[in-house]
Amino acid sequence: MRFITAIYADNYLPMLWAHLQSIAHYHPKDPVSIFYEDISEYEIRILQESFPDYKFIRGPNLIPRGHLMEKIPLKIRYWSMACDVYPDEVLCLLDCDTALCSNISSFIDRSFDVLYTWKDERFPLNTGVVIVESKSQVCKFMKCWLKRIEEIIANPADFERAKELNGAADQHALSEILNAQNYDGFIEKKIEREAVKFKGVACKYLNETNSVPITEDTHIIHYKAGWHPIILENAPFTKNRPQEECKEMLEYWQQLYREAIMKSIRSFVLASALKYKERFARIMDGYEERGILHSEMLAACSVIQNLDIDIIIESGRYRGQSAEILAKYFSGTKTKIVSIEINKDENAKYVENKLKKYANLKLIYGDANDVIPKILIRHHGEKIAILFDGPKGEMAIRIFKKTIRNFPEVITGFFHDMRKPAEKMPNSTREVMENCFDRIFFTDDSEYVASFKSLDQSCLPKTNIITEDTWRPWMKGNNKIGSYGPTLAVVLPAPRERLNKTDNDANISKGFEFKKALRKIFHNGLFGRY
Questions:
Q1: Which of 91, 208, 370, 460 has the greatest number of CB atoms lying within 10 Å of its CB?
Q2: pLDDT value for 500
């Protein structure tokens, strides 16, 4: 059996992550194909690292932009294509907002050509789950079904009638084809003179659309439209989706999602670092105390390269070690670096002289609160990474959270000094980071350290003099720390973090007034020199 789904908007990527994780758990050996359009290519790259055996197929833009009720039924365009692409295979055609919670092999037999799901409710058919054997008669059925859907959508009166009678154009078209009083059991129909055997299975087994406890009979949950604001935007529960009834299904979805995204960023960072380790080693140079370790900078450089970033914003440069590594690593590429420092002191003058030879590096001064939005507006439409080495802690988190909600161009961020406390501390900066972002990786990960710690030999002290800033593994100065090194956090903002426009995280103070900063920018002029 091959699992098929289609996705055509970044907003639904969280649903896809949980969906794919559920298939990987319950059908680890079965092939999976995902047809996609209008999805960021860097998100597909991250998905491919997480699910390397799955096929991600860029679609030929079959879904027109428009109202959601028009777009969703046209998924059948991709399902019909899948039947042509994978002849003679059993295909489980699923909406991307479904999740398996059991193995479904027991439902697959030779008794049907098309399996659909039904429920004893106002709209009896739900097309979130359809299982077919892609033989010639099934391909004819899919094309017939699609043709009728397109006719319904093209006719406003038919479209309204379809929604009124069956909830959606695809469900209404299937109802017309089946033309049955009872959807339970077997129905045989002629499609272009070929017999097609349909089998109806109750939604409670293969397509549970209601908020109910998960039982041994529940094989697939469908987190349909009423769930979306709750899951994607942290919206309040509703009359039809009350909190108590949703609790078990919501926790299951959150578990799948968390497993998938944590696997995703870990896989992506490790694969990126391994891919570009040799290139990084060639440009690696000396080390300044208080700087970012070489193994940590490898994570930043390799992820930035793998994401094909256009602009790197560095906030805080001290004596310019990380700025120089970025400039050297990306020399001769399209990637440019803008480095911000708030203090214009002796260290700043030293850095200006040291780094003036790098044409791809621009050194500027100012407060990151004010300067970063200006840079982002100036580079509208380009892919941007932000490396925070100052300000640190809550200020950096606050800036980044507000930034990713207002600027889709920002696709990754890096935060230095994210070591674990030597002893358990509630509400540590590390813990705040973990609570704030879905996709986050720390370079003190045991596998990462084992793989790349050799790069840090030149970061060890050259003399026996140990200052408060001297780094040694698991030490800062003469004090033990809870991590291998200062530690860099790598964040790949998840789509639902961009959807949630309100900051409800009590761990983040409210001092950063982003809209005020934007108003100031507009008042002073958008495209002045920064």
A1: 208
A2: 66
DSSP 216-238: TT--EEE--GGGHHHHHH-PPP-
On the 0-12 / 13-18 / 19+ scale of CB atoms within 10 A, 345 is exposed
Domains detected in the chain: 2-256 (3.90.550.10), 286-524 (3.40.50.150)
Torsion of CA 142, 145, 147, 149, to 10 degrees: -130
Region 182-193: what's the mean pLDDT? 94
Listed in sequence order, the residues at least 6 apart from 493 whose beta carbon sits closer than 8 Å to its beta carbon are 404, 410, 411, 412, 413, 437, 438, 439
Which residue in the block uniquely carries the two structure tokens 């200062």?
486
Structure tokens at 350: 């030293």
**pTM as predicted:** 0.90
Sort 341 into a burial class: Cβ within 10 Å, 0-12 / 13-18 / 19+: buried
| Chain segment 104-136, per-residue pLDDT in tens | 999 999 899 999 999 999 999 999 999 999 999
What six digits make up the tokens of 501?
A: 């426009």
Q: Which of 412, 397, 395, 416 is nearest to 485 (CA)?
A: 416
Tell me how far apart the alpha carbons of residues 501 and 522 are, in angstroms, rounded to a whole number: 21
Distance between CA atoms of residues 179 and 460, nearest Å: 77
Task: Tell me how far apart the alpha carbons of residues 169 and 159 are, in angstroms, rounded to a whole number.
Answer: 6
CA–CA distance, 525 with 517 (Å, rounded to integer):
12
Angstrom CA distances, 253 to 15, 67, 128, 426, stand at 9, 26, 17, 27
Token pair for 15: 């649903």
